Amino acid sequence: MPVLEPLIELGRGLWTTFRSMFERPVTYQYPEQKRPVRPRYRGRHVLKRYENGLERCIGCALCAAACPADAIFVEASENTDEERYSPGERYASTYEINYLRCIFCGFCEDACPTEAIVLEDDYELSFTDRRSAIYPKEMLLEPVGPEAEPTPQRTPPGLYTRAVPEMEDPKD
Amino acid sequence: MSKTVTLTIDGKQVTVPEGTLIVDAAKKIGVDIPVFCYHPKMQPVGMCRMCLVEVGRPVVDRATGQVVKNEDGTPQIRFAPNLMTACTTPVSEGMVVLTESEKAHDGHRAIIEFLLTSHPLDCPICDKGGECPLQELTMRHGPPQGRFPYEDKIHFEKHFPLGELIYLDRERCILCGRCIRYQAEIVGEPVIGFYQRGRATEIVTYSDPGFDSYFSGNTTDICPVGALTTADFRFGARAWELKAEASICAQCPVGCNIVFNTRREAKSGGRVVIKRVMPRQNEEVNELWICDKGRFVHHYTHSAERLSRPLMRKGETLQPVSWEDALRTAAEKFEAAGKEVLVLASGRLSNEDLFNLKALADGLGGRAVLYGDMGGGDLTTLVGVGQGTNLATLGAGDAILVIASDLQEEAPIWWLRVKQAAERGATLIVANPRATKLDTYASFVIRYANGDEVQTVLNLAKKTDKIGQAFAEAENAVVFFGSEGLGLEGSQRLAVACAHLLRETGHVGKPNNGLIGVWQRANDQGAWELGFEPVADLQAAFEQAGAVYIVGADPFGDGRLTLDGVKERPFLVVQEILPTPTTEVADLVLPAQAYAEREGTYVSGERRVQRFYAALPPYGEARPDFAITAAIGKRLGLDLEDGSAEKVFERLAVTQPAFENLTYARLAEVREQWPIVGRGDLYYGGTAYENRRGLGVQLVPAAQREEPVTLPEVQGEAGPRPEEDEWLGVPVTRLLDRGTTVLLSTLLHRRIGEPFVVVHPMAAERLSLAEGQKARLTVNGASAEVTVRVDETVSAGVVLVPRSMGLPLYEPMKVSLKAL
């Protein structure tokens, strides 16, 4: 019957609405309540440290070279044993990521020879002006662990001569 | 024309001169044979074994001496059982070379695998990363995985300063010996070498200070790995982040073609700065090399001291003013002075700047004076080297006279090329009052007493001795004259004598013949071309002037001018890039752009007009010199061009006969050069840049244009000599001096050293002085503290006083020296 057909369709739609009243809600009460992110989620970058507090980043700028959005700016300087930031001879004296440009592709992670830069789970990135969208090294660097010393450190000569550590294949 | 040989490389036929090496023949047809130790400018040694190729030769029947043919008529080829090194094997007729065969690839792969056994693979932090032959060739030829355990790598010292300028990373070194051979073969200063044997072999320096050579930076360019890096650029930037802009070195009259590598830098407050200076190939000027001064003196361009705003004297101090006020004031004062305007400009300025300055001086009826204490530029315009001169083509049968110049200190790349000409068989005559490094390569050394320069040249012209005869009989002859021990008058007279010598022996008006001035500044020759001349009594000229416009010169810092005893001081306008003692006493200071911030042209000592390009954005409110001058000129009703350097040059080319038909486009023309460098094959010629922005054009001297050349009379009387119980101070030029721009490169401070004088051991004894002792030098009432150096080749009554070291001596003069 052509007259009844729209009513049947309407009823079918309303049934879906009615049924969902008894399902568990998917909404989160953000920001009070936060949804956990997936293990491979790509949020804001963090510059990692070794256990002893030394920075993993050696300022090689391969992340900047890999970046398709040209969001990363790195400038390197030389370590000394009196003022050591990272193992080896070179460290990043300037490290900036422009979050207006970043597309969170994760190429920087792939390019990093020391696993220093990691896209973690912070996605709360909002800015009121363009300048504050540029995160300097201090904001990106992981906090120093309880056992470790902050950088720059004074280190015994001849101990940290290797910039690139031996690494294992990624597990996940 | 020598015999040629035809061979086949990877199926392509090529015909090359006999004796060519396979690697070069392949390069000519675009086949890149990988190399590490081979460099086209050096003798092959076959140390790295990277260039292994399969080589086959036609089979020759011993009985008949005929080439054995296959059934189809092609010559039968027999391949050598083992791979051969392409860099040590000369080509032969009918040779067949396979560079891409499986066997050759196996060889390349094995060599790379061995080279990497103890290579640290720290490419991420290596300065060579991105422009590294080892990296490139590993990607192209290397095995996907090494079979040697990573843990078995032998570790060496990574941070070993060979000197304060060059660092060695012993782990990265692949022992190709390019640097050692460069120093020994090309420079002739074997200050580095191999030490120990086998796995323990390492590169060491034998000199003190370490790696003591003015050419040390070039070894970092030709190092095929990141073993040698400059202290200046260390971790400065990655190779791919740098922008490259062509320029001309402004440190001496050679006019080396260079490239400024620039990058925006947070350390410099977000400014674009020069990160390093690299050579740019010009086989007629600097080949693939530059000296360390040219490489390391660039820090002044981004010095925080740079003048960024016009300053005007208000009472005792200089206060910032607007450009409008500054230009108006300058114009008013120049107008008031009228014919009494003195324009004092130096050879640091480009042709365009000098042209406008001359037009301003002429428009007002004032004087245009070149700052400097060397004369003879009028003669180089008449009998300078002919168009087509290339020092690299001088050899057996040719002669080179170097007089009154320590060429290595004054123009290192000329030194290198003159030395190489002598090694090719040219007769090199070195005439100097004391020993210089060029003496080693000289066929004849003439040692004359200070003051006898002109007489020395006149004696040569007499052709009575074998030296004079050798010079006269040479097919081509070039004379380099300098200002060692001479002031303006002395060098002018010397130039006249040299010009006569060249003309009398028929060595003018042809390529590879003529006079070259070893000037103190990059564009002194250009200033002479445009009508600037120095004056003998600068102080008098200054005092007589109503207004003085000093551009690119520091006469107060050099002790050439003083305000002491000046009753009526002229209005002083100073146009500079950095504050100097001259800007301190100025009434008006106009900030100019450094030459790296703008376009322009220089004329080298060989009279080659060469273009430089803008590599940096302008500093603050600074403007180009020619534009400032034009802006002042316009306010005076003069028709000066301020649009662009190119437009100024267009006018210059119309009004100056020597520059006829020259345009910026012509100066930017390039030709194919050998060796081929700077393309995808960094391993062949090093990291020197290919020349894509112009080889320049040599000016035609009057003698070559077949115009009548009238030379001034020779004034043969001797110059000043030391009297009994007197010391004659004579100026000498040093490469690394205490000039305002040089001192801002702090890396060089140890090499620059403190102000010093050089005396003979006997003189030192009489003055009770010893090497290294402090003494007080008094010249013309002014005095300075100096360190004494002793050299037994210096005349006994003479005290050598280096220029631009803060010691006010610019011509031979009586001095006193007292121990402190």
Characterise the protein shown here.
The complex is a heterodimer of chains A (172) and B (820). Chain A has a domain at 35-140: Alpha-Beta Plaits (2-Layer Sandwich). In chain A, 17% of the residues lie in helices and 14% in strands. Chain A has helices spanning 5-20, 62-66, 107-111, 137-140, and strands at residues 45-47, 72-78, 90-98, 117-119, 134-135. In chain A, the strands form two sheets. Chain A has a three-stranded antiparallel sheet. The model of chain A has no long low-confidence stretch (mean pLDDT 92). Chain B is of the alpha/beta class. In chain B, the strands form eight sheets. Chain B has a seven-stranded mixed sheet with strand order 16-15-26-25-24-17-18. In chain B, strands 1, 2, 3, 4, 5 and 6 form a six-stranded mixed sheet that branches. A six-stranded mixed sheet of chain B has the order 31-33-32-35-30-34. The radius of gyration of chain B is 29 Å and the shape is globular.
Task: Give me some keywords for this one.
heterodimer; A: 172 residues; alpha+beta; Alpha-Beta Plaits; three-stranded antiparallel sheet; two-stranded antiparallel sheet; 17% helix; B: 820 residues; alpha/beta; Ubiquitin-like (UB roll); Rossmann fold; seven-stranded mixed sheet; six-stranded mixed sheet; 24 helices; globular
What can be said about this structure in brief?
Chain A has 172 residues and is α+β, with helices and mostly antiparallel strands. Helix content of chain A is 17%, strand content 14%.
Structural class of chain B: alpha/beta
* Rg measurement of chain A, Å: 24 Å
Give the N-terminus to C-terminus distance of chain B in angstroms.
66 Å
Count of extended strands of chain B:
35
Distance between the termini of chain A: 58 Å
What is the 3D shape of chain B? Answer: globular
Oligomer: heterodimer
N-to-C order of helices and strands of chain A: HEHEEHEEH
CATH third-tier fold name of the domain at 35-140 in chain A: Alpha-Beta Plaits
Question: Could you list the spans of chain A in which at least 5 consecutive residues all have pLDDT below 50?
Answer: none
The CATH class of the domain at 311-372 and 527-668 in chain B is identified as Alpha Beta
Helix content of chain B: 10-25%
Based on secondary structure, the structural category of chain A is: alpha+beta
Mean pLDDT figure of chain B: 94
What do the pLDDT scores of chain A average to? 92
Biggest β-sheet of chain A: count, sense, barrel?
3 strands, antiparallel
